[in-house]
Here is the input.
Amino acid sequence: MSRIIFLMKEAMISIRRNLLIVAGAILAVFISLSLAFGALVVNEILRVNTIAWQEGVHVIAFLWDEGDNGVPVNAHSTLRETVESWEEVRSTRYVSKSEAWLEYQELFEGQEELLDIDPTILPASIRIELEDIDFHNSVGFRLEQQQQVVRQVTTAADSIEQLQTLSNFLNIFGLGMAVVLGLAAVVLIANTIRLAIYARRDEVSIMKLVGASNWFIRVPFLLEGMLVGLVGAALAVFFVWLGSSNLARAGEGVQLIRLDVSTDWFFQWGLVFLLFGALAGIIGSMLGLSRYLRDAEGTGPDVPTGF
Here is the structure.
């Protein structure tokens, strides 16, 4: 226990002696991981909204009026029954002309110039929810073949596919950024540890002379690097969470899109980034130490040749 306390004290002494350098390393880790974590948050927001938009109406078939242009009286119900029998279709909902007018009034409430129309021009429609959004092309094609009943077919699938493409791109971009910036953080921490060793080179040389093992020398610097990475990652997680919370509160009145991220997601990825920061600090410290100790063994207690 006393040895552990001693090693912790040595790590804190090293941090105090190189406070400015350590602060710079923490800032670099904070900026790097904030950008990576922020990219993942944006990707999660897009993913959640894409899933939400995939649920509900995917295809709308606008219909010719029954009794006009040779359309049979029961054509709408017959077509709906046919569509419901397709394997790609999960459910359907029939919207009559009167229901379409009520929907139109709700949509353009308060805009009198748009409400001054003949309600009979609004067509009845069949709203279709698919088992999978990928079926929209085949279902749309089959509906277009029913030209006697179907006036027009519209789908939101193209917009959803664009969002999926953007979400996949941001996912790859966010992970790639996390890797690249994580490596940059490792290099920065390694340089910080090298500078710390250089500042305490005389003490390290004396410890080598009295028989201290390499691991006894390494541990305080490994702890220092781990603390640098952990503090930088903690700051990144906290500020990204703070920014995301403010964004979610600002978007509470927006019904079209969700801007909030679940607490469970934040906890899981926040923990991953904290572990990544600590691991990056340890790896950076090991890289910085390995060169010094290797050079010290070959050149004695003097300043290592690499500095």
Summary: The longest strand covers residues 89-95. The beta strands are 59-63, 89-95, 125-130, 150-155. The chain has two domains: 2-53+161-299, 58-155.
